[in-house]
Design a protein that fits this description.
Length: 233
């Protein structure tokens, strides 16, 4: 009931793996195609296309203990790792880099306090904590906090673009946070891609509509597709 799946043949077959509870997000190394990251209460890394996994954060040697409580074996962690905020990881991003750029990954994570559903995104957390590692997960620092659950992290040269609540934010390298554009309702899900020097963001709202920003979250416009149906269908 908590398995996740990976395919190595374009979806023809799948291999199930289990990291204690369901995974809320994945990230793929832009340089090494064999390296995959997965998140739930912890950050996990696979260096062999999802065959085996190791806990990266919190640091497993810092008195980190896994707990599975209740008849549903609800998963949580306790640790003496001082950088670990606790709760559930809701989003992950890897800063873009070229194949010629050697060195460890620059990672971003957002955490949501426990006690708020990871599935029902209409319930917002009290505070979302964003942390960053420039050495592939060895050390971490707190970057910023936002008042609501983070749904998307997208690094770019001018700072980190974050979707939280109903708005997009830019988080500067020094932690300064600027609110950009927003949609009329809370954001239920979002995805992003780079186009030129900007980030294109597609977001679905709790109002059931689809919105698009073509300027890294500064402005959003309605792009909900029309469903053309004939009578009787």
């Amino acid at each position: 009931m908590t398995g996740d799946y990976v395919t190595k043949d374009d979806g023809l077959s799948w291999h199930m793996f289990n990291l204690r509870e369901g995974i809320s997000a994945f990230a793929f190394d832009p340089v090494d195609p064999r390296t995959i990251y997965a998140v739930n209460a912890a950050l996990w890394r696979s260096s062999d296309l999802g065959q085996t996994w190791k806990m990266v954060f919190p640091n497993p040697v810092r008195d980190t203990v896994e707990h599975q409580i209740g008849d549903r074996a609800n998963y949580s962690l306790s640790t003496s790792d001082p950088a670990y905020p606790g709760g559930d990881i809701t989003a992950i991003a890897i800063a873009p880099r070229k194949a010629s750029q050697k060195g460890p990954e620059h990672l971003y994570l957002s955490f949501q306090p426990r006690g708020h559903s990871r599935i029902d995104v209409s319930r917002q957390a009290d505070v979302a904590v964003i942390v960053s590692s420039v050495d592939g997960g060895i050390s971490w620092r707190r970057v910023a906090t936002l008042p609501q659950r983070v749904l998307l992290l997208c690094p770019q040269d001018s700072g980190l673009i974050v979707l939280s609540g109903s708005a997009a934010y830019r988080v500067a390298p020094d932690g300064g946070t600027t609110e950009l554009g927003s949609i009329p309702s809370g954001i239920r899900a979002a995805s992003a891609a780079h186009s030129g020097g900007a980030v294109w963001i597609y977001a679905t709202g709790q109002d059931g509509k689809v919105y698009l920003s073509e300027d890294s979250g500064m402005h959003f416009r309605l792009v909900t597709p029309e469903l053309h149906q004939t009578a009787g269908n």
